[in-house]
Design goal:
254 residues; mainly alpha
Length: 254
Amino acid sequence: MGNTAQQCAAFLIACSEDQTPAGTDKPITRLRERVAAHLLLWAEDRNDMADRRASATRALSILAEALPASMRADIFERLMALHQYPGEHPTDAFERRTQHPLSRFKINTGGDWRLPAEALHAAAVFATTTEQATRVEQNLVPQLTQPEQKRGHGWLQARTVLALNHLAPAQTALIATHPSPFLRQTSVICWSRAADRDPNLAHLFVRDRNTGVRHNLAHTLAELTPDERLEYQAIIELRTDNSARVRQAAAQIP
């Protein structure tokens, strides 16, 4: 229960490549592969609850960068299949029934949406080719056209967009006005990394009601070259922003 699986994955990533776990003669790389295989089987196990399977899926995504290419390709395909057909444990079905308006009590761990969302995010992390990234994007974009209905869903979608951005640049114009503040904050980051930035989006970001969006914009403009910054009048507004956090970030702009 909880985030134990994610902590274990993080510990394995933190270990150096030349370390050998106590009680075994196998290198840390082999242990990572074994743990990843176990987490994948756990995520696919329909005899377990969706909430626990979602936690295993997130832990699996932590190990992605440390796994060999062949293993990543296989895991990617299985994660995409998991996203499409997550399955349902009897406990998950019972939880879903309690969401009925006439139910006398409600149980909501978020497993019904979280497992497929975590699987799609993990697939984005495991993607290594443009073709794989495009497949993930094709599943994600229809979801982005809908307002955030589940708490935390927008945050996970934002992380998925960010994971894909280096292979399939995000459609910043689509998410710059999204109802979820997490997606709008991510749109600033993706906009800053784009080869051709639309200056008009800076005017949109600087007027965003979310402090995080304006804060990200200030950091982005601070990293631009002097010649690039000349066309952004948004800098003046950031320096007089209502938020002290934003003004502090804007103060770093030369």
